[in-house]
Amino acid sequence: MRIGRGRIFGLTIGAKLMILSLAFLTIPAIGYWSTREMKSFLMAGQENAQLLTAQAVATILHNRDDLFEAGYGPGSSIKDEGGLYVSPLDSMIQIDGYSNDWGGLPARSKEYGKESLVSVKTGGQSATVSFNLTLGLRGEYIYALVRVTDDEVIYRHPDYISLSDSDHLRLAALARDGNERRIIITAKKPGAVSAYQVDAKWKLPITGAAENDILGIWRESSTGYIVELRFPKNSLDSAMKLGVAVGDVDDESARKLESVVGAVEKGKSDRLNLVFIRSPELERIIQGLDLSGARIWIIDGARRVRADVGGSLEDDIAHGTESRNEEVIQKALVGAPGVERRKSEYGYTEVIMAAAPVLYNGKVMGAVLIEQSTDRIQALQRETLERVFGITLFVFVIVTAGLFIFSSQLTWRIHRLRDEAENAIDNDGRVVYETLRTDRSAGDEMGDLSRGISALLSRLRRYTMFLERMPRSLNHEISNPLNTISTSLQNLEQENPTAAKSQYFQSAGHGVDRLRDIVKGLTEAANLEQALKNEEMIEFDLGLLAERYVKNLSAKFSDRRFTLSKQERAYFIKGSDFQIEQLLDKLIDNAIDFSPENSEIIVGLRAEEGAALLTVANEGPRLPESNVDQLFESMVSERGPGSGSRLHLGMGLYVVRVIAQSHGGGVEARNRPGAKGVEFIVRIPLQGGV
Amino acid sequence: MPKVIAIVEDDPDQLGNYADALRKKGYKVETYSTRREASEAFARSLPDLVILDIILGDEVDGGFDLCRELLAKSPGLPVIFLTDRIEETDSVAGLVMGAWDYETKPISLSFLAAKVATLFRIMETRGAAAPEESKTVTHGDLTVDEDRMQVMWKGALAPLTLTEFRILEVLVRRPGNAITYDGLMDSAMQSVVTHNTVNTHIRNIRKKFKAIDDGFSQIENVTAVGYRWTCE
Question: Which residues in chain B have their CB less than 8 angstroms from residue A480's CB?
Fold first, then answer.
């Protein structure tokens, strides 16, 4: 962009400051970057914390095989066996056939139906019964709640020995001695049930004696019947295998076993289920670790949940973690603690999971999983980001606005200073005023500059004044000794008339005369400006003046021809007629000096663009192009071949210029186009611009 | 008794030349080179006419200061200033009530002597003759007393210098007619006279008349010729 009026191209200070201020954009950028770093840091921190917690919890559980039932090592493959979950029971269970004391557990229990068909009568197709099994553990007992959906409830015939010709429950477990123990639970009528150990075919009792340790109540329900049972935990061996099935008989007379549905996975009809007791002890241990927003799982080697605390209901307890085979879990189960992140189901938060192995004698028996969402971190990051960004943006805007205002003000001050400095010196180089007002008392560099320029102008003015006074001082200095010589010569003449005739006396006199003329010229120039100020400016017709003047010229100067070339009209100007005469005197003198004898000098007058142009043209030598302007500065003299006896100090042209300028115009010199010689053009504004 | 002329000039050569020239004319001349010297002498006795150089030594206005001193003691004392420029006398133009004039350097000794003689004559005339007896010419509001060489405008005395009086005299000799610059220059009696000088004198004359009468415009410039006095 252009600066000022020059041809120098560059950026303004304002633009430079604006570009620099872009650097401030780094502030919000840094702010943003630092919040991202903070987030990573916090995430890493949370991961670490979670991992440490997992490891700490795992450490507590090291070698606590009692909590894990070490038999369930990695060898157990979850795929082959179904699982029966035994949940810890908070409250006392009343064996009354009602499920209200089971809390929310029955609602989450698994339903076994068609897919869990164990056997079906010949000719039969599918299961005729289904049931819902809820298992709980409290104290020494395992409690079972079996809600059977059966359209025909057939009770045991009191006279029949066979236990499987009525609706019945089947329990199978491995006894402590390793044998499979099969128990049929049946009732003759609603109320207390009887349990008998039976043979492998599930038909006949072995001993006929009831199993006393199994306590249960059979109650009819709207959909079928409900059996609430209790048996000692110890009746299951360490292998913790249990099978539960329901046998269905629908015909009271035929008493045929229609179908047997078992709590098994599809296709694994005759296998016993692994019973997974969620370890209440484990849960008690980790209960105190309830971290808000975090979920702690303790799984065993087969990835079944043994305890869990805290967290959301995102994962169904019944599902456990069989479906969760994330890498970190796998790694933990081979002994390597680790931590990983995954996107949560809802999409925008991340969840961190830490896993640490629980060891038994150096072998992995389970793992501690801690899962926590990072939504707090995210929220914190977002908040901080907003705040930081907001603040930094605000700061940026303020700073930029401040810089903008500052630079505008600075630029304005600079412009003002420049303008004032420019105008301090007029076109002639004269100092108009020497003290700049802009920033005169400012305390900064601008103030320095302003005062510096003022000092400079002062010095310049003093120098110019000295120069300007020089003619006057010279005049004064010269006139005194000149006077001495002159008066001495005059007295000499009086005293000694003979001596006065001596040629030396004469030549001395000439010298004095010449000096006197010089003094006269100096005085005139020195007094000119003063005289111009004192002159009265009146309106007069320049045309008339020119006419009269030229008329007189021929009388005065016989060896030149004078012509007036004037456009007919009135040329009213405001000024001093006397001074214009003087101006013409000087120009004519100059023209005479530089023109050959009997040549023509033309005085012209015409109007152009609201000004009168008064011209004096003479034949003679042309001007050298180089210093045309300097002609008008005093002390410069162009002496041509025809310079004659007239005094030249160049003062004449200087006077012309001063007079022209004091009339609001100027003077120009040029070589005459098309003719040999020189032309001087004086421009004076016309009154009214016409 | 010969008249006593006091000359105050700091350059001894010039001082000597003036004194010699005037003594030859028969005057008694007392010379002083500094203001103090002159001041002390004037405290004792006053001269009949005083010629003052303006710049005396270090004192730029030494001549003017002396003039004030003298005029305080003797208001009608004739004074001739030796100046570089005519403008300098503007500052004392209002002070001098008596006959006075100035000469610019380089001085013509014969002009100086002539002016001294004229001034003495005027003083005598002004002192001696009764007002009615002097030769006066009237043009409208202007009264020119040729003996006393005094000019009155609308009854008020205009304090013109000798030179100015002469110029005015020439102008009103043929009122309504233009007098050329040359004609006016001759009456100035100065060795260095230009159109500019004449113009300055005319300007000073106008100023003095305007001090009496604001609407004074009797002196007109005639383009490329000179000036003329108009009686409307």
Answer: 11, 14, 105
CA–CA dist A618, A595 (Å, integer) = 6
Write out chain A residues lying below 8 Å of B216, CB-based: none
Q: How far apart are CA A92 and CA B126, in angstroms?
A: 156
**Residue A491: its chain B contacts at CB < 8 A?**
17, 20-21, 109
pLDDT of residue A320 exceeding 60, the answer is no
Residue A331: exposure state from Cβ atoms within 10 A (0-12, 13-18, ≥19) = middle
- Asked whether the beta carbons of residue A534 and residue B225 sit closer than 8 angstroms, the reply is no
> Which of B9, B17, B182 would you mutate first to test chain A, the one with the most A CBs within 10 A?
B17
Helix (H) or strand (E) holding A398, with range, is helix A375-424
B225 in A contact zone (CB under 8 Å): yes
Most confident of A85-94, A347-356, A604-613, B207-216: A604-613
Cβ(B106)–Cβ(A519) below 8 Å? yes
Beta partners for residue A224, in sequence order: A149
Mean pLDDT of chain B: 82
Flag whether residue A545 sits within 8 Å of chain B, measured between CB atoms.
Answer: yes
Distances in whole angstroms, Cα of residue B32 to Cα of each of A189, A474, B19, B27, B41: 169, 25, 11, 16, 9
Within the 103-162 window of chain B, which residues sit less than 8 Å (CB to CB) from chain A? 105-110
Residue A510 forms contact with B (CB below 8 Å):
no
CA distance A540 to B2: 54
Contacts of B200 in chain A (CB under 8 A): 531
Amino acid, res. A660: A
Upstream peptide bond of A74 is cis (omega within 30 degrees of 0) = no
Q: How far is CA A106 from CA A172, A186, A223, A274, B87, in A?
A: 22, 22, 15, 19, 131
Give contacts of A544 with chain B, Cβ < 8 Å.
223
Who among A476, A480, A491 is closest to B20 (CB)? A491
Contacts by A129-133 with C-beta closer than 8 Å and gap 24+? A129/A167, A129/A224, A129/A246, A129/A247, A129/A248, A129/A258, A129/A259, A129/A261, A130/A261, A131/A246, A131/A261, A131/A263, A132/A106, A133/A84, A133/A109, A133/A244, A133/A263
- Amino acid, single-letter form, for residue B4: V
- Residue B107: the pLDDT is 81
Q: Does A552 touch chain B (CB under 8 A)?
A: yes
Q: Would you say A386 and A408 are in contact if contact means Cβ atoms under 8 Å apart?
A: no
pLDDT tens by residue, A161-217: 778 888 998 888 877 677 778 888 888 889 999 888 888 777 778 887 788 888 999
Question: What is the C-alpha separation between A348 and A528, in angstroms, rounded?
Answer: 93
What is this structure's pTM?
A: 0.50
Report which secondary-structure segment, H or E, holds A512: helix A503-534
Interchain pair B224, A487: CB under 8 A: no
> B108 to chain A: which residues are within 8 Å by CB?
486, 490
pLDDT over threshold 80, residue A547: yes
Instruction: Kindly determine whether residue A484 and residue B14, on different chains, have CB atoms separated by under 8 Å.
Output: yes
* CA-based nearest residue to B139, from B92, B51, B41, B209: B209
Rg (CA), chain B: 18
Amino acid at A241: K
Q: Which residues of B touch A603 (CB under 8 A)?
A: none
Give the pLDDT mean for B33-56. Answer: 89
Q: How far is B12 from chain A (nearest CA, A)?
A: 9
Tokens standing for A395? 């700061």
* CB within 8 Å of A153: residues ≥ 6 apart: A167, A220, A224, A225
Q: Edge to edge, what strands does the sheet with B49-53 contain?
A: B28-32, B4-8, B49-53, B79-83, B100-104
Residue A647, pLDDT above cutoff 50: no
Pair type for strands B49-53 and B4-8: parallel
| Three-state SS at A213 | coil
Does the beta-carbon distance from A483 to B107 stay under 8 Å? yes
